[in-house]
Amino acid sequence: MRTLLMCIVCIFLLSILQPIESNAAKGRKEFEQTGNVIWDIPTRKKIVAITFDDGPHAVYTPEILSILEEYNAKATFFVVGSRAENYKSIVRREVGAGHEVENHTFTHHSLSGMSSKEVQEEIQKAHQTITSITNQRPTFFRPVGGLYNDAVVDAAVDEGYRVVLWSWHQDSKDWQQPGVDKIVKNVLSGVRPGDVVLFHDAGGNRTQTIKALPIILSHLQKQGYKFVTVSQLLQQTGHDKIPSF
């Protein structure tokens, strides 16, 4: 009896002394409730947000802009600050065509393992670069590789941003260069209203993206879809502003 009692006491002490993981990332549901992280939105309207990461690129980005113009499609470009500095005229062309230019860090280094201060520095430097080129203030941030944790989200929010990822079923996987048909299938097989779709306009050979994009846009257009910016997408739910606490 005494041994049993001692075991119970030990189990109790272990339970109350167990360290708590205070830095673990919250789940999607918790982040969505705060409004600080966006994957997609619930809507019945046939609209999707086309997004491009890692640009601008001297060749691929202008080609993509021409394709978007042909289909009267608006998109959101998550640009790397250091690349934006090198291709200012392309960034200005994006803005002039009615697209959004948003923050994708300055160096495109992984944020994994960075402190909140280091993440903020990446965001701040890219922010300053984008603002100086476009005369517009970016408000959305996409971490490199879509990798985030509490520190990344907190740093973004402290800088006045919301984190925008993409629908779990809408990674075109064009970064893998799987072939044009595969990219098309990845997007069209599960598309639904309110999706955020991930493409890339730099960071590698994007000729497959260039070839797949008109097929995707044409097919969705025939289904009645319209292509909007992330801001326009969020306006459908009234969640186009960062929540104030």
Give the ordered list of helices and strands: HHEEHEHHEHEHEHEHEH
Query: Could you give the distance between the termini?
Result: 53 Å
Q: Quick one: overall form?
A: globular
Share of helix, binned: 40-55%
- Structural class per helix/strand content? alpha/beta
| Strand runs, count | 8
Task: Please summarize the sheet with the most strands.
Answer: 5 strands, parallel
Q: Counting H and I runs of at least 4 residues, what is the number of helices?
A: 10
Radius of gyration: 21 Å
On the 0-100 scale, what is the average pLDDT? 88
- Poorly predicted regions: 3-24, 240-245
The fraction of residues in strands falls at 5-15%
Textual characterization of the structure:
The protein is 44% helix and 12% strand. With 245 residues, it is an alpha/beta fold. Strands 2, 3, 4, 7 and 8 form a five-stranded parallel beta sheet that branches. Strands 1-6-5 form a three-stranded parallel beta sheet. The chain is globular.
In short:
The protein is α/β, with parallel strands linked by helices. It is built from ten helices and eight strands.
What keyword list fits this structure?
245 residues; five-stranded parallel sheet; alpha/beta; globular; disordered C terminus; three-stranded parallel sheet; disordered N terminus; 10 helices
List the helices and strands and how they pair.
Layout: H1 2-17, H2 28-34, E1 37-38, E2 47-53, H3 60-70, E3 76-79, H4 81-86, H5 88-96, E4 100-103, H6 116-134, E5 140-141, H7 150-158, E6 162-164, H8 180-188, E7 196-200, H9 207-222, E8 226-228, H10 230-234
